[in-house]
Structure formats: C-alpha cells, structure tokens
Amino acid sequence: MENKVLIEILASQYKAGLGMLRSAIEKIPEAEWNNEEYNNPNWQLAYHILWGVKFYLGANPASYTPLEHAIEGAESLGGTRDWENPDENVTVEGFHTKEELLSFIGSLESNLQNDIAKLALNENSGFEWYPYSRLELHINSIRHIQHHTAQIIERLKAKGITGFTWWADQHPPQEW
User: Fold this and answer.
1) Which residues lie closer than 8 Å to 25 by C-beta, 6 or more apart?
2) Phi/psi of residue 93, each to 5°?
3) Phi then psi for 41, rounded to 5 degrees?
4) In tens digits, what is the pLDDT along the chain, a chain of 176 residues?
5) Smallest Cα–Cα separation from 147: which of 76, 48, 3?
6) In whole angstroms, how far apart are CA 173 and each of 19, 86, 119, 129, 167?
7) Measured between alpha carbons, how far is 147 from 91 in angstroms, rounded to an integer?
8) Which string of DSSP letters, residue by residue, matches the chain?
C-alpha cells in the first residue's frame, strides 16, 4: 500500500475520532463542563486529548507549540508517575471553554493530512518513550482519542445524556 493511501486513511481515522469527541463536547451541559465531580473535569479530559494529538503529530517533544492561551499543566491528568502530573509548582488555573476546544479540533483537522505526511511513517516515532515507528504512533494516538472520548461519553450517559453515534471514517455517520 502506498504511503499516500496510508496517510489518507490515518487522517480519516483521526477525523473520525475527533468527530466523536466534538459530538461529545457539544452534548456536555454547562453544569458538567467544569465541575468537581471527577478528578479531571470534562473540559480537561477533552483538552488532554487534543493536546496529545497536537503533541504527537510533531517530530519530537521540542517541536511542540502550545495552543494559544493554553492553561499550563492542564494536559496532565494526574497519576502516580511524574510524567502524569504538571511540573512542580504548576497549578491548573481556570478552564478552556467549549468554543476554544471546538476551535482546537477544527485547527487540528484542517492540518491533519499535511501533519501526517511531513514525517516518514516507517521512521522512529521521535518520542523515546514510544520506541516504535511513526505509523504505530499514529495508531496509538487514534486509540488515545477513542479511550478518553469514551470516558466522556460514559460520564454523560451516567447523567442520562444519550445519542452518541459511531464514526466509521471522517464523514459524519448520516453520510455513510
């Protein structure tokens, strides 16, 4: 299979995951956007997903440029390992709005094919903690989108919010 076809397929699957995330974000009631019910509010979980997509589409950690007005440390969800937490002395303050995150999704989608194509799929991922190819890194990133999007969807379903459709590819479900 040609790289061009693989790049198109990867872009389509990224867009499918991001489309499902967009649908979930749009259904989050304002009262559920930044509440303290969970360790990480819904906005932060969504931001973590988008931060990860942008970060891993880059060549390496040094190539990352944050979202304009990014909230320092918000990409970290907390955990038992140092890398799972914001840097020492960083406190996540404020929150990103739905509009900011929906705009972030649009920005990521508009550059996806070029971002995927700029680095060879068979080369090293560029991230020492992911010692595999760039292609496998893309697949891992798509799985990451789905993992956390499913968390948001399950939170919403627990509140009686339903109607989440599966995106098979980059086209909204009613189009395939």
Assistant:
1) 42, 46, 98, 101, 102, 105, 152
2) -120, 135
3) -65, 165
4) 679 999 999 999 999 999 999 999 999 999 999 999 998 999 999 999 999 999 999 999 999 999 888 999 889 888 777 777 767 777 888 999 999 999 999 999 999 999 999 999 999 999 999 999 999 999 999 999 999 999 999 999 999 999 999 999 999 887 55
5) 48
6) 10, 37, 30, 35, 6
7) 25
8) --HHHHHHHHHHHHHHHHHHHHHHHHHS-HHHHS-SSSSS-HHHHHHHHHHHHHHHHSSSGGG--PPTTPPTTTT----SSGGGSPPTT----S---HHHHHHHHHHHHHHHHHHHHTS-TTSB-S-TTS-SBHHHHHHHHHHHHHHHHHHHHHHHHHTT---PPPPSSSS-GGG-
